[in-house]
Specification:
By secondary structure, the protein is of the alpha+beta class. It folds into two domains: 62-179, Immunoglobulin-like (Sandwich), CATH 2.60.40; 182-385, MetI-like fold. The protein is 57% helix and 16% strand. It has twelve helices and seven strands. It has helices at residues 11-34, 39-44, 46-56, 182-215, 218-221, 224-243, 246-257, 261-285, 289-297, 302-336, 344-353, 357-385; strands at 62-74, 93-96, 106-112, 119-125, 133-140, 147-152, 166-180. The chain has a four-stranded antiparallel β-sheet, with helices on one face. It has a three-stranded antiparallel β-sheet with strand order 2-3-6, with no helix packed on it. Helix 4 runs parallel beside helix 12, helix 7 (246-257) packs across helix 8 (261-285) and helix 9 (289-297) runs antiparallel to helix 10 (302-336). The longest helix is centred in the C-terminal third of the chain and has 35 residues, at 302-336.
């Protein structure tokens, strides 16, 4: 008896339960240590994580056509080290409060007659060169086209060898309506490429997987020594192709044929052959045996039995699995892009490496939309063919 009168467990059962609970606790404790779970780090990083989520939820989708004008003039530091700049007295202009200054001073810079609500970015261009710039500030003009800003005079902007640094202003103003941003256009191109990569890979894999699936179906092939050998060989092939992750395959094919969409298609194809082959073979093994017996009773050969009793039963499942795997391959392609497999995953990798999180959000939302649309398409296909 496992329990005493009154429903209480016996001592041996109680010991077994206790040992089981302790074993499970030890397994999870070791797993947590090996996985380096750090809940305090999760809480400490919450503000940064919240900022990332905010960036992801505000993707770069639209932009406005802008006009950019530039104004720059030499600004001696200290006074007398170079000639003072000639500042215009009318029209759109940027005017410093003083014609020169000393190191560590702060100078007032004003803009007049600019486009209303334009964005002004101020830079120090160092010692007459155009490629060495130091950010000095950013402002937005008011409705009258005016702005005022304080600019620090740092030691690095001091005049050298009689060459004064320049104070450079870039004035950006909106001149057109809303349009898709460059980031969004890039995302659309990468999304289309990803869809076609997944489509080609799934189609090629399905063509190869169909004959293999019949060989890997026990009820079709495993009859006699030759049939059993073909069955186990086909099963072994499907198991091997499913063993390799698409990420590893993309790296191998990238080194083989060069990193890009072609390597991504090859890696997806090899992986999908194994996955679809297993699903197809199980669909073949699950068919109605009675229909096969009925067709066989008419004197049909094995090939005729497959043609008239097996194929009509498995076509709906084959179609459904193929469409579903197209969906899966779209998601997988976002991962293999991180190792140069092409598609939207490669674009996502580039944007993450450059900390362009608003543009990362654009790609992530595109992936969500694509997967959702493919899910709807898959549901429609299954509804029609099953």
């Amino acid at each position: 008896m496992d329990r005493l009168p009154g429903g209480f467990p016996t001592l041996p059962r109680l010991i077994r339960l206790t040992l089981t609970v302790v074993a499970i606790a030890v397994i999870y404790a070791v797993g947590a240590r090996e996985a380096e779970l750090d809940l305090p780090a999760l809480l400490r990083g919450f503000p940064r994580g919240l900022a990332l989520v905010r960036d992801f939820l505000s993707p770069d989708i639209f932009t406005r056509e802008t006009s950019v004008t530039t104004v720059e003039f030499e600004f001696p530091v200290p006074c007398g080290s170079a000639a003072n700049a000639q500042i215009p007295e009318s029209g759109p202009r940027i005017v410093p409060g003083v014609p020169c200054a000393a190191v560590e001073d702060s100078i007032a810079v004003e803009g007049f007659d600019l486009e209303p609500l334009s964005t002004i970015r101020l830079w120090w261009v160092l010692h007459g060169t155009a490629d060495q710039r130091l950010r000095a500030g950013s402002e937005t003009s008011d409705l009258a086209g005016h702005f005022q800003s304080e600019v620090s005079v740092r030691p690095i902007v001091a005049t050298q060898d009689g060459r004064a640094s320049k104070l450079h202003a870039e004035v950006s103003s909106v001149v057109g309506g809303l349009a898709l941003s460059p980031a969004m256009l890039e995302t659309i191109d990468a999304s289309i490429l990803t869809l076609f990569m997944a489509l080609i890979a799934t189609s090629l894999a399905a063509i190869v997987a169909i004959p293999i699936s019949f060989l890997a179906a026990a009820n079709i092939t495993r009859h006699g020594a030759t049939g059993s050998a073909a069955y186990y060989l086909a099963r072994s092939y499907l198991n091997v192709t499913r063993t390799f992750e698409p990420l590893v395959l993309a790296t191998v094919f990238g080194l083989w044929v060069g990193f890009g969409p072609f390597a991504g298609v090859l890696s997806l194809t090899v992986f999908t052959i194994g996955s679809l082959g297993k699903l197809f073979s199980e669909a073949v093994e699950g068919i109605d045996v009675g229909l096969i017996e009925a067709v066989t009773a008419t004197g049909a050969s094995r090939l005729q039995t497959i043609q008239y009793a097996v194929i009509p039963q498995v076509v709906p499942d084959f179609t459904s699995f193929s469409v579903y795997h197209w969906d899966i391959n779209v998601r997988i392609s976002t991962i293999i892009g991180f190792v140069g497999g092409g598609g939207i995953g490669f674009l996502l990798s580039q944007r993450i490496s450059t900390f362009s999180y608003h543009k990362v959000g654009t790609a992530l939302w595109a992936i969500v939309i694509i997967v959702s649309l493919l899910d709807l398409f898959s549901a429609q296909v299954r509804r029609r063919v099953i």
